[in-house]
Amino acid sequence: MRRGRTSKPSRETALAGWLCEALERERIVPRFVDTYVVEHERYGLQVHPVRYRELLEVIGREALLAMTARALAAAARISEGGRPRPSQREATRTARLFRGRLLAALARQRNWSAGDALEFQSDLALYERHEDASRGPRNQRRPGHSQGPFVDRCAFLLDPSLMEQARSASAKLAAELEQVVTALVDKVFTAL
Fold first, then answer.
1. 56 and 33 in contact (C-beta within 8 Å)?
2. What Cα–Cα distance (Å) separates residue 60 from each residue in 3, 30, 64, 108, 171?
3. Contacts (Cβ under 8 Å, ≥6 apart) of 157
4. H/E stretch holding 129
5. Residue 85 has what pLDDT?
6. pLDDT of residue 145
7. Which residues of the chain have pLDDT under 70?
8. Pair 95, 103: CB distance under 8 Å
9. What is the DSSP string of 67-88?
10. How many other C-beta atoms can be found within 10 angstroms of the C-beta atom of residue 33?
11. DSSP labels for 16-64?
């Protein structure tokens, strides 16, 4: 009997799997929403099960967008640091290939249709523009400062009537997501 050869998954496939798994296994979004509900006595967010599930899904999608943009930026920095300086064209090509493969792996992981994948890619561009803008030396993030589109979009979805409290809670979630992504990207680039 011959043994089948098992190959290691690509970095992109592993990262996509770990991003999705981290969101689900650690229950980051449900824990965030439930904590917000209790801290701010906004029990109405949980009264209707269908609306509550939809809220979790939409905020989960926003979290995945933020995590993906952060992972792409971190992966680009790591891959640039490990090699001699490639030409600008080669670096751009490598980053585009990694991005495309990661998005394809996410689409497979989430069983998205082509339309869902294109919509995710379109929204991701908004997050990536913020990542690119915040990379400059003059634009270092300050603690507690808005961390891009995620904080505002998540706050609006969560509780538009208490926007400042929702923004504050969303900023904490963004920081948590950033820590998770940093650990996962380091894991992917050291393990594979």
1. yes
2. 39, 9, 6, 17, 15
3. 55, 58, 59, 62
4. helix 114-134
5. 55
6. 45
7. 1-8, 79-91, 132-147, 191-192
8. no
9. HHHHHHHHHHHHHHHTSS---H
10. 24
11. HHHHHHHHHHTTHHHHHHHHHHHHHT-THHHHSHHHHHHHHHHHHHHHH
Tokens of 131: 């990542």
Residue 96's H or E segment, with its range, is helix 88-110
What is the sign, positive or negative, of the torsion defined by CA atoms of 21, 94, 66, 111?
negative
Helix 49-81 to helix 88-110 angle (10° resolution) is: 150
Q: How far apart are CA 68 and CA 63, in angstroms?
A: 8
User: Residue for token digits 């980051």?
Assistant: 28
Given its phi and psi angles, is residue 87 left (phi above 0), alpha (psi -120 to 50 degrees) or beta?
Answer: beta
Tokens of 23: 């969101």
35: its two tokens:
């904590």
Residue 129, C-beta contacts closer than 8 angstroms, at least 6 positions apart? none
- Whose tokens are 């991701």? That residue is 124
